[in-house]
Give the backbone structure.
Amino acid sequence: MKIREDLVLRHVGDDHIIVDPGQDMVDMSKVFTLNDSAAWLWEQLAGQEFTRETMVNLLIERHDLPYKQAEEDINKLVEVLEENGLLDKLANAG
Amino acid sequence: MLNKDRITIPNKLLFEQVLSYIKQGKYVTIRVKGTSMLPFLKEGNRVSLKSFHAGELTKGIIVLANVHGQMILHRVVRYNNTTIYLAGDGNVSEHEVVSYGDVVATAFSVYRGETEVKLNQRWLRYLGQVWYWIRPVRRVARKLF
């Protein structure tokens, strides 16, 4: 899978927000916020194809989590990314 | 990890982002906060903004302006060559006095839920002005009720 390339992750104070800048219309009333881990992951994954496996490994590397828990977290994250249309629909690998 | 709840980004930080997009010539939609523009803009309504041009200045339009470092979305009630006077529809006595350079954007649409209302319609601008003219009445009414 792949993160939509047109989305922008911005760091606003202590928050990490994802903005969908659109062609000439920016909707700041519908921004998504990420926690520190998710924002870090986002930065690692932006611009490339990746799998759930890649995500789980990255998360474990950073947080020293048990595999099972990391996998659960990633599954939840992917679900939310999909639900909100933040993934590139044309890229389907993984 | 990803949160869709509405968060309140500190005003100053949000507006830095808004400003940078407006300067790029983009339209920016933000959510209304506060009650100073009642009854025309309600908390939670979404407002679309575009870059402000002095040539479009007319009484009754709603603009985003930098008032002593704070970004405020209020209505233009009076102006001359150097100064623009703004007032919140919900306020009964306050004004903000700004210069042309302080006005950043014009509000062109408000979304109430899914319904879009274009704000550049003449009758809406007039209605906004009438609402301003009857401030003395509203002041009294506020005391009575």
In short: Helices of chain B lie at 11-23, 122-133, 135-144. The CA atoms of residues 15 and 51 of chain B lie 13 Å apart.
